Amino acid sequence: MDKTMRFDLISLSLFVAVAETQNLTHAARIKHTAVSAVSKRISELEQQVGTQLMLRMPRGITLTPAGHSLLYHARQVFRNLEKMEEELSDYAAGIRGHIRIYTISAALMNHLPRVVSDYLSHYPQTDIEIEEQTGMSVVQGLLAGEADVGFFSSWTPSAGIEYWPWQHDLLSVLVWPSHPLAARSELTFADIVNEKMIGSHRNSAVSHILERQARALGKTLNMGLRVSSFVSMAELVAQQLGIAVLPVNEVASSTLHSGVRVIPLTEPWARRDLLVGVRDYGQASPSVKTLLGNLLPAEQAVQPEGEAERR
């Protein structure tokens, strides 16, 4: 015997309206429906689920625990319907998908442009938005539903996110050509800890790890300037206003500025993973899954590392 409950969308919509206004009359007015019809729909829902969903109080409506549960799931249903309608409208308009990407600077500078270019060569009508953010803002954007895909580093706490290893990078030191360290092929953090530095914004993962490593050496970093752009940092280095530490080991000096040298740090902690993540792979749009499929082996995309950690 099939015991699956089949809910009517009109009844669910009326239920949500009543729950949100906490008043049958107000909900009926919003939905352009008679109060008696709204009350009848709610009663039918309660009969269907086999328990009371609302308490009729003198001054309005109060949800029971079962009512709160139904409200949560009903809202999810309508959000998914809106997402479906938006995506199908995109197909009808020839866009064939919309992807919102939040990314840290390192991914945007080193790898992401190639990824986007390759994807758009196969799906040229996809609409892609890219916003540069700090690692924490990338994760928060994914959790809030503001971003569909996020690129961040393994240094960033990522609870609640499904993610996969994607690339690796290495912190490197930017110096001007006549700087005493410019002739070196590699550097340790002790070589630069006393230098005047140009730092990224205070909330960046790079800033946090450099400050932590300086404290481990009993030092305090001399941050003369802070800017958020890698290119701006390189410009300031070229003007000999300080050195900088950035995850740009694979970027040619001339890409940032012809007046700087890029020298890798040899510290083990200077190496990190770049991750790609989503809030919920199972709920991701076909466009997002296709993008991830281009980045990752199929079996890896199905089982993200972040999901395993949360279980």
Automatic annotation (TrEMBL):
InterPro entries: HTH-type_LysR_regulators, LysR_HTH_N, LysR_subst-bd, WH-like_DNA-bd_sf, WH_DNA-bd_sf. It comes from the Bacteria. This is LysR substrate-binding domain-containing protein. GO terms for cellular component: cytosol. Gene3D superfamilies: 3.40.190.290, Winged helix-like DNA-binding domain superfamily/Winged helix DNA-binding domain. Residues 7-64 form the HTH lysR-type domain. Keywords: DNA-binding, Transcription, Transcription regulation. It comes from Enterobacter soli. Belongs to the LysR transcriptional regulatory family. GO terms for molecular function: DNA binding; DNA-binding transcription factor activity.
